[in-house]
Specification:
Blueprint lengths: L3 H14 L3 E2 L1 H11 L4 H16 L7 E2 L1 H12 L10 E5 L6 E4 L4 E4 L11 H19 L20 E2 L1 H5 L3 E15 L2 E6 L2 E6 L4 E2 L4 E2 L3 E9 L2 E8 L6 H5 L20 H9 L5 E4 L7 H14 L6 E5 L9 H16 L2 H6 L1 E5 L18 H10 L3 E3 L4 E5 L2 E6 L3 H8 E3 L6 H12 L28 E4 L6 E5 L2 E5 L9 E6 L4 E6 L3
Helix pairs in contact: 1-2, 2-4, 3-4, 10-12
């Protein structure tokens, strides 16, 4: 830190030569960023940043901290186009919304106004949008599409029907319905789609793999007799690779972020991703800042990574074990700032992303959840400027890879609400199949898992991302289905301080743990 005044003088001199006056806050911030670098690298970075500031065409020749932050981001992305970023965090309320157009057979952007307090029609609209997404995907599958050419002659062709077809008759065999599993009266289940609702008999049903809950869309096969559908087999809608799903969107950016086109197709980012074999992203949940043992282990983790800085460290809440007021929690974040301020290499290279849980203060128990408020984090951001306040859930973009992060007790909720618990197979496989086939992070009844109706697009998993990260306190795991990795971090304190490390170049997940 003794080098900061000397570096500050060099920075002021460099910008003065270029005809700029740099604010003291901005010069100190830049000095802190380049201090961990070697002498030769400092000069190169100072020259690059000054050049980027000149390219910003400032209205006044006064350089603020925000100009330096933008210049550093642009310098990090040298060789990339303006809208191409190596790493970025996309908040849930900025995720674009798309609706399926049956006439054009494609998804079109919906840029209409959205509100956290919409009219009652919004509830039926978001459920209908989920249904349309699953219907078009399922009806295209070779099992239901008679026009699709396939080399597999053993595939049995089925007819996917709407409920209104059943209601017009009293008897029908080999019925296949895609519908919402719901309980309109206590103890009595029904299937519902946009055309109607039909009672179902589950007494002799054979279930496929997955966790079937009220609020899930299911594929039901059976016989219709006297107004009731007797279900013989129940499964989930078909799954498909993300590359197949994206064909119905074109190159438009469905993920979010400032780029107009989807960065999945960026050649430069793909080359960068391949070269950066050592880049990692660290994930951990239940960061209890009010627990001395957890703080000690966090300090050990952060100081350890200071020697080998990852691309990002994602810390998920709750950030207090006990229910603390805002003033107490603010002091906890200040203590975290003291630890991070001593990690000079992390300050230069690593973003620390804070993802709140439903138990953190200042927000209702409903997703998407707003970021932690600035009033709690202000002192932390001063000590460590690369803090990113994210929503829950949020999306990460690392080069061409798409990552969804959600801090919720999803595994626990699905197990608690399932109407049929699987008797065989691994729980992680049933869990991942449920999420991927439903195409959403919230395949549950709104009472069990409430979401903002107008922002259900933030919960979407269609097209599939490369990685889904869930922060559930149950045992951590990772599994892969349809080329999508599903990972649960587990609880940092409850798992003896275990956490997950993602290596994007090899799309691999490593289990790590802080030793005793």
């Amino acid at each position: 830190m003794s080098e900061i005044p000397k570096l500050k003088a060099q920075i002021v001199s460099r910008f003065t030569i270029s005809g700029f006056q740099i604010r003291s806050e901005a010069s100190i911030f830049l000095a802190q960023q380049i201090a961990p670098l070697e002498e030769a690298n400092r000069k190169r970075w100072l020259h690059n940043i000054a050049s980027h500031v000149q390219g910003q065409n400032l209205e006044q020749p006064v350089v603020e901290k925000k100009h330096i932050e933008l210049a550093i981001k642009e310098a990090n992305n040298t060789g990339l186009d303006d809208n191409e970023t190596i790493f970025s965090v996309i908040n849930a309320f900025d995720v674009p919304r798309f609706r399926y157009n049956e006439e054009k057979k494609k998804f079109l952007p919906d840029s209409g106004p959205r509100s956290l307090l919409p009219g009652p029609d919004a509830k039926s609209e978001y459920i209908r949008d989920r249904y349309q997404m699953l219907w078009q995907k399922t009806s295209r599958h070779e099992m239901f599409n008679s026009s699709k050419i396939t080399s597999n002659n053993n595939v049995k062709r089925l007819t996917l029907r709407k409920i209104e077809t059943l209601l017009s008759t009293s008897k029908m065999n080999e019925v296949v319905i895609l519908g919402l599993l719901t309980q309109l009266t206590e103890g009595k289940f029904y299937l519902e789609d946009p055309t109607g609702v039909v009672p179902i008999d589950l007494s002799e049903t054979v279930y496929s793999s997955g966790l079937f809950c009220e609020g899930c869309f299911v594929l039901a096969c059976g016989k219709f007799r006297d107004g009731t559908l007797k279900i013989e087999e129940m499964g989930f809608p078909v799954t498909e690779l993300a590359s197949s799903s994206r064909a119905f969107y074109g190159t438009v950016n469905t993920w979010g972020g400032r780029s107009k086109n989807l960065l999945k197709y960026s050649r430069k980012l793909a080359e960068f991703e391949e070269k950066k074999e050592d880049d990692t992203i660290v994930f951990l949940a239940d960061c209890w800042l009010d627990d001395p043992t957890v703080m000690s282990k966090l300090k050990q983790l952060l100081t350890g990574y200071n020697a080998f800085p990852p691309r990002a460290i994602v810390l998920m809440g709750p950030f207090a074990k006990m229910n603390e007021n805002a003033y107490a929690l603010k002091r906890r974040f200040q203590a975290l700032g003291d630890i991070l301020a001593a990690c000079e290499c992390l300050k230069a290279e690593t973003d620390v992303v804070l993802v709140p849980s439903s138990e953190d203060p200042m927000a209702a128990n409903i997703l998407p959840r707003a970021p932690l408020p600035e009033c709690l984090i202000g002192d932390l951001k001063k000590r460590y400027p690369r803090i990113v306040l994210a929503t829950n859930p949020c999306r990460l973009q690392y080069c061409t890879q798409q990552i969804v992060v959600c801090r919720a007790d999803l595994v626990t909720k699905l197990c608690r609400n399932t109407i049929h618990f699987p008797q065989s197979g691994q729980l992680e496989d049933h869990f991942s199949r449920t999420l991927i086939s439903q195409g959403t992070l919230a395949p549950l009844h709104p009472i069990a898992f409430p979401v903002h109706w107008n922002y259900d697009a933030a919960m979407s998993l269609y097209p599939l991302p490369d990685l889904i990260v869930v922060g559930d306190p149950c045992q951590g795991f990772q599994t892969t289905e349809q080329s999508c990795t599903v990972m649960n971090t587990g609880s940092f304190p409850k798992s003896k301080f275990a956490f997950k490390v993602y290596i994007p170049s090899g799309r691999a997940v490593e289990d790590s743990q802080i030793p005793d």
